[in-house]
Design goal:
The chain has 152 residues and is mostly helical. It has 4 helices and no strands. The radius of gyration is 17 Å and the shape is elongated.
């Protein structure tokens, strides 16, 4: 079951990255063109948030119960969490970064409900989504990252 969840989690990474880039582009265009908030943009932001939350939930299940999960395996004997690159990344850095990114995506999506001008909604959403993208890029286990990398 956990290898399947890991595959789904990995596939959803690409969905989120694509939706996030589209959200950034649309919010930037809306901000620069000072246009009215469009229904298509709000739906795009909503789907970005839904996929981010779904991926986070699957990730938290893997963090707790997966092959190297906190509750299923624990730390091997003699391993100090913050001195071990692998466990520090998968138990601390990756989950923390993804929680922060999901919060940023949620805040970007929340701009729809604010009582501010539409160009300002686009501007704020743009910055929240851009920060979320930067965080995600920094904490994804890309294949070229030594000792923590995973396949694309």
């Amino acid at each position: 079951m956990f290898p399947v969840l890991l595959q789904i989690h990995s596939i959803l990474r690409w969905v989120i990255l694509i939706l996030l880039v589209l959200s950034i582009v649309q919010s930037f265009i809306g901000w620069i063109k000072k246009r009215e908030l469009r229904e298509g943009d709000t739906k795009l932001w909503l789907f970005t948030m839904i996929f981010a939350h779904t991926t986070l939930l699957i990730g938290l299940i893997l963090l707790l119960f997966g092959t190297y999960g906190i509750l299923s395996s624990g730390l091997p004997e003699g391993v100090i969490l913050m001195k071990n690159t692998f466990y520090r990344f998968y138990w601390v850095e990756h989950p923390s970064g993804m929680v922060v990114a999901t919060i940023l995506i949620t805040l970007g999506r929340a701009m729809v409900k604010k009582q501010i001008t539409d160009p300002l909604k686009y501007k704020r959403a743009f910055w929240f989504f851009l920060l979320a993208l930067v965080v995600i890029i920094l904490v994804v286990p890309w294949p070229w990252r030594e000792s923590i990398g995973r396949g694309l």
